[in-house]
Amino acid sequence: MKKIYFTLLIIGQCVFAQNKTEQDTTKFQELENVFITANRTATLRKETPVTISKLTAKTINEAKATAVYEIINKTPGVLMVNLGNEQHMMSIRQPMTTNAYYLYLEDGLPIRPMGIFNHNALLEINQFNLQSIEVVKGPVSSLYGPEAVGGTINLISIKPPVDPEFKFGVQADNYGYRRFQAAGGATIGKVGFHVAGISSLQENGWMTYSDYNKDNLNARIDYNISPSTRLISNTMYGKYYSDMSGSVNEEAFNNRTYKSTTDFTYRKSDALRTRLTLEHDWNSNSSSYITGYLRDNKLGQNPSYGIKWSPTVNPTTAKGEVNSNNFKSYGAIGQHTQQFNFLNTKLVSGALYDYSPVTYWSYVIDLKANLNPGEAGKQTVNSYEIIAERPESKLADYSADIYNYAEYAQLSFSLFENLVLTFGSRYDNMKVNYENALDKSTGSKVYDKITHKAGANYNPFEFAGFYGNYSQGFAPPGITSIFRAKPGTGGSTGVPAEFYYNLKPADFDNYEIGGWVSFFQNKLNFDYALYYMEGKNELLSIKLADNSTDYRSAGETRHKGIEFGASYRPSKQLNIRLGGTYAQHTYIDFKLSDKPSDPVQNLNGKEMPAAPRWSGNSEVSYYPEWLPNLRTSIEWQLVGSYYQDQINTVKYDGYNLFNARIGYQWRKIEIYGNVMNLTDKLYAYNVSRTNVTNAQPTYTAAAPRTFVFGIQYNFSLKNKY
Fold this sequence. Notes:
five-stranded mixed sheet, Maltoporin, Chain A, disordered N terminus
């Protein structure tokens, strides 16, 4: 058995203590912590043969995050990459990537349907509505379906409180960010409710052209029909608009010249998600639920990453694009859980149906490139200007109806007291009926797969346990990739558009073992996991010389590493947490080019780019007894060196980063401050370059030292936060 949550839960044991008595009771007592995500039902950690972590409400409250990556990065083996204004990439048992190998859940339901992955999906999350976050590392496709490959993140919302509660606050930093937030709820008779809203605004930041605003509202109503039957509704609505400042060149980065090359790129999102769940407990060993849901998303952008510019062909001109991706989803999921007395057996089974119509279009915009001085062929762009929009010059224009159907089952049982065996299987079928306006084609594509998992937990001692598992992952290509014109075709090229109709689904086989050990009455804890994952037909993007993207299915990739966490709590005043991972991500069979003139024909044996071998997050927290309601912490974020390109010519050195946090609760008022990038480190969230000779790197610059301040009022009839 493995207790990765030790690494996380110790962080937040004393936050917001109201008095000495309460602080004395805030001890680490999470040995039997309950998780939902790993088995789709409440399960003890010692019965879960996967690597799973839990970030509690106290951890979330202590972080006082402006963006959710500040919380999720506290998980060992997880690197959520900030791209600015809550945009992000992810790295869990994968390089830092935007690929569809992560599944993001909201109370157990995917935020996006299969086939419409968006790496920025978590920017729609309301941080003020989070009760906890559960992170599963490695494939859980047998329970949650495709895209649950590198990891699964389940954001669990706050339930209605028994007694009336209300809180509101403001948060701001020294670079023009401010956020207003409020939440409240109560239970009256059989009905409980909770409502949470935030409004964030960024103006005149450290990077030019980097404003954004975000408004989110979440509402949950629970109706307890009877002691055994519950009706739960949950609705979110969010609007988001952000300038896209993009990356900077090497000279600008080193000089801290944080100037965007554009003043017209943007990303916007309107999102509505609503669901209604009926739960029923048939008896103490049997329960069921059925959920009906609706999603309605409108996504539009003029992306900075979509600008195509070649320093050698015509350096004073460039191309950009405007695109729109809109979809709705209508679906239902039902599940039954049955426990048996024989061998402590538990069976979880369910089915899902999802219908998601989607439309997508993208067209070319002509740009003027204003150059910085430099040698021909090595110049960089100072700024871009829009010359003309070309709605008639399409890069993509399609509509599709996506039908997802799935059935799953998982069986766990104990052969003897200290051994739990788990077996699971799932069948997924995704059918896409499409109409591609660019090549005037219509048709259907079907991606289906049966995925399995098998695992065991062995807990021979009170202070130690072990687990092992084999699991499969499955990820069909996103339809945006399939129906996008290949580089050099379509648009204004004069060449008929060609598409990626032959992209194959990616398959993964994951093997892992892990364990935990606890000493000194749970004051010292250590956990670990070793994994080996093989990928076949993994969808990879090739960054071409003009910054355009080509898609390929790699023949085979390999991902292996060790994840570890340690925590030490010698007293109520001090918590020490250490967490990290060492990993290698390698191309095994990946043909890059068929051209004899290209210096590199394949990438076999080379490391994947944007794949640091070392990464980690550690923290020391101090809660002084001489001032009971004070909390302080210092956090260390480590990202090791990694290759910038696929042909392994140049590395980025990575970075060490420190953050400090302090907060004090006086009666119902909480005052806090965070210092992000405490030492004012010059670093980049991501650095990349193309595979051509003398390619220029692009830097996604990170913020300089930032001071965050906030005040919050917390009210409860219990007079207790």
